[in-house]
User: What shape does this take?
Amino acid sequence: MEAEGDIRDVGGRPALLEPDERTIKQVRSLSGMQCTQQEAAAALGVSTRAFKYFLGRHEEARRAWDEGTHFGKASIKRAQFEVGVKDKNVQMLIWLGKQHLDQVDKQETTHKQAEISPEERLKRIQELQAKALELPAPKGEANDES
Assistant: This one.
C-alpha cells in the first residue's frame, strides 16, 4: 500500500531507451556508419517507432544522431579524397569533381558533311536513281512502264 504523499509515476510503460552515456554513444556510432533509423532501431533492439520517439523526446540523442551522420559523411569524403589524390585514382577524381565542383561530362557530337562539288553531287544522285530502278518492284505492285 502506498503511503500518503508518496508520488509515483504509475502510468505508461517504462522507457525502452534511456538517454544515458552508453545509448548516446551507440546512437552516434550507428548514425556515423550511415545507418537508417530503421537499422539503428534494430541494432538497439527497439521498434523504428520507439527509436524515432526517443530521438524526438531527447535533444541529446537527436544531437548525437545528427553529429554522427555528419561525421560519417565527412569520413567517407575524406577516404574518397585520399583514394583520388594519394592513389591518383582518376575515376575517383572525376567523381569528386562532379560531386563537389559541378563538373559534368561534356559530349560533343559534330556532323561534318563532306564538301563535294555540285557536279559530284548530281553524279551521286544519278547513280542512286539508277540503282533504285534496278531494284525489283515490291510484291503486289506492278511495274508501270507507260
